[in-house]
Amino acid sequence: MHKQPFLVDIRFRVVLMVCGVVLLLLACTAPLTLPIRTLPERAQSAGVAAPTPSATVAFQPDQVTLALETVVEDLASPLFVTHAGDGSERLFVVEKAGYIRIVEDDVLLETSFLDIDERVNSNANEQGLLGLAFAPDYSESGFFFVNYTDSAGDTVIARYQVDAADTNWADPASEFVVLQIDQPAANHNGGMVAFGPDGYLYIGMGDGGGGGDRYGNAQNPATLLGKMLRLDVTSDPQQPYTIPADNPWRTADWNGIDVRDEVWAMGLRNPWRYSFDRQTGDLWIGDVGQNQFEEIDYTPAGSPGGLNYGWPTMEATACYASDADCDQTGLIVPVAEYSHSGHCSVTGGYVYRGEAFPALQGVYLFGDYCSGRMWATWFGETGEWNTMVVLESGASLSSFGEDETGELYITDLAAGVLSRLVVE
Description:
Elements: H1 10-19, H2 25-28, H3 41-45, E1 66-72, E2 78-82, E3 91-95, E4 99-104, E5 107-108, E6 114-115, E7 129-134, H4 138-141, E8 143-149, E9 155-163, E10 166-170, E11 176-181, E12 193-195, E13 201-204, E14 227-231, E15 253-254, E16 257-258, E17 263-266, E18 273-276, E19 283-287, E20 293-299, E21 307-308, E22 314-315, E23 318-319, E24 336-339, E25 346-351, E26 364-368, E27 373-379, E28 385-392, E29 397-402, E30 408-412, E31 417-423
Parallel strand pairs: 17-21
Antiparallel strand pairs: 1-31, 2-3, 3-4, 4-5, 4-6, 7-8, 8-9, 9-10, 9-11, 12-13, 13-14, 14-17, 15-16, 18-19, 19-20, 20-24, 22-23, 25-26, 26-27, 27-28, 29-30, 30-31
C-alpha cells in the first residue's frame, strides 16, 4: 500500500501493532542499518544508468545545519502546502477531510478557503482531499484544481474558482469535474497535481492498490493507473481537458499497443509527491516502494515523455520478486533510493530555490514519512549523484511545499503542524 502520510501498508501495520499508536512510530522503528544508495551498483552492473543533469551543484553539507520552525498548529491531518502565485504571499494547506486552509502572515485563518468535506471520502488511510494546484493564470482566472477521492472511493480531479468578491473563499458549487478515474482498492491513489513549466497539469496516479501491482496496471497501456498524466486544462475552460499535441503516445504506440493519450509516463507504484524545479523545469518524483526500497526519480526538463519508471519489474533498482525475467531494457532508474530499515514511505520534496540560504541552491530535499528523516540529493562537481541525511526532524512528514519565493515548508500529519525549513 501507499504508506505515505496518513498511509501505512500491511507490512508496516505489524510495526503499528507492536508500537501501539502512530504517534509512537519514531520510538519503535529500528536504527538505520542500510545507507541510502545513489547511482546504485546494481543499476550500473545491469547496464543502465541514472539520468545526468546538465548542471552540477557545489554543495558542502557540513556548512549547513537544518531545522524546522513552527508556523501554525491545530491543523487537522495536513497533507500538503502550496501558494497561489498571486503575489499575496498566502499559504494554502490541504487537510485530509476536505478542507483547504489559509495561512496569512503566519496566522491560520478561521474560515476555510474551500470546504468540500461532504463530497470527500476520507475514511481509509489513503483517501481524502489529497492534492492542490493553482492555475498558472490564477490571478486572472481564479481557477485552481484539486485531487480527491469521492464517496465511491474513486479519484476525482476537479476545478474550482475563487469568489470574485472574496479572495479568501471559493464556492464549493463552482466545481467543474475534469477527470474521474475508477479505483479498484482504497490505497495507492497517488494524490499530487502540479502544473509543469509547459503550463500543463501533471497528475500522478498510483497502480490501483493491493500489493505487487495486484491489478496489473503500472505496465498496462490501456489504463490511467500507475501513470503520470499530462493534460491541458486551461486552453479551453469549457472543456474538462484536451490532450497536448506533443503527448508521447498521442500518435505513437508502445510495442505495437495503443497507449491512452493522457499518459506521459508509466511504471509508477504510488507517486505521492513530485515537483518541478522552478528554475530548470526538471521533474523529481518520490515513488513509494513495496517491501524493500523507496526511490527518487529524476527527469531533466524538456523530456518528451514516453518514459517507463520500472514498476513492477523493478522496485527502485532491485528486481522485484514477482518479475522473474526482470528485463530492464529502457527503464528509468532512480537517482537515489533507501531501504525500509527504520523507514516506510518516501515523501518527495523540492529543489531549493529560495534566497534565505544560498548554500542550499540547487539541492533537492526529501524525506521519509515514518522516520521523519530528511535527505539532500545533488549532482556534484565530480560528476556523481550524492545523497546524505541533513535532518532528523521527528515529524510525520506528509509533504513538502514551497512559498512564492521558493522557501520550503513541511506538513506534519500526526501533530497537525505546518513548519518552515530554516538553517541554524
